[in-house]
Amino acid sequence: MFHRIFKLIFAGLIFATAIWQFTEGYIGNGIFLILLSLIPVLLYYKNEFILLAFLRLRKQDFTGAQKWLAYIKNPETALVRKQQGYYNYLHGIMLSQTNLTQAEKYFKKAVELGLNMDMDLAVAKLNLAGVALTRRRKLEATNLLNEAKKLDKQGMLKDQIAMMKEQMKKM
């Protein structure tokens, strides 16, 4: 993994080469190099290892996702703020299967750092509500469920939210 500054420097060098190709009369090469210079810029904002971990999670391969996330050595310096949020979000999802205490820590950090999509934020808050419910913190769970319901604009978490509210009524 390249440091994020190197990604921008690399993109700048490719872009400069594209300009040079334009001045030499090789228009096709210049256009190709400009398009090629967009890849490091994209990877500046979307970390490649986080993208690969998301692909592994879609296949329910938690060990594979953990392997890709392990390639990120120092997330505080190697990732921008939103990427750090997704890094913690992915760790929280993986740990929610086994260790709720650690999962809660990661989900809280992910919510604090911020996530790009409302759906991801709703899932994080829903998981935090589940952890609060298992710890008998009904008021906190209710607040988190209401926030998750507001963020779930497509209604994809409707069943999970209803199920959790039913569990809260039984408490």
Provide key terms for this protein:
171 residues, mainly alpha, 2 domains, 10 helices, elongated
Descriptive report:
It is built from ten helices and no strands. The protein is mainly α and 171 residues long. The protein has two domains: 1-45, no CATH class; 47-170, Serine Threonine Protein Phosphatase 5, Tetratricopeptide repeat (Alpha Horseshoe). It is elongated, with a radius of gyration of 21 Å. It starts with a helix and ends with a helix. The mean pLDDT is 87.
Short description:
The protein has 171 residues and is mainly α. It has helices at 4-23, 27-45, 48-58, 62-70, 75-78, 81-95, 100-113, 118-134, 138-151, 158-170.
- Helix coverage percent of residues? over 70%
Structural class: mainly alpha
Determine the strand fraction and express it as a percent band: under 5%
Number of domains: 2
Number of strands: 0
The CATH architecture of the largest domain is Alpha Horseshoe
Rounded average pLDDT: 87
Please state the overall shape, judged from the principal axes of the Cα atoms.
Answer: elongated
What series of H and E elements makes up the topology? HHHHHHHHHH
| CATH topology type of the largest domain | Serine Threonine Protein Phosphatase 5, Tetratricopeptide repeat
Q: Which value, in Å, is the CA radius of gyration?
A: 21 Å
The level 1 CATH classification of the largest domain is Mainly Alpha
Uncertain runs: none
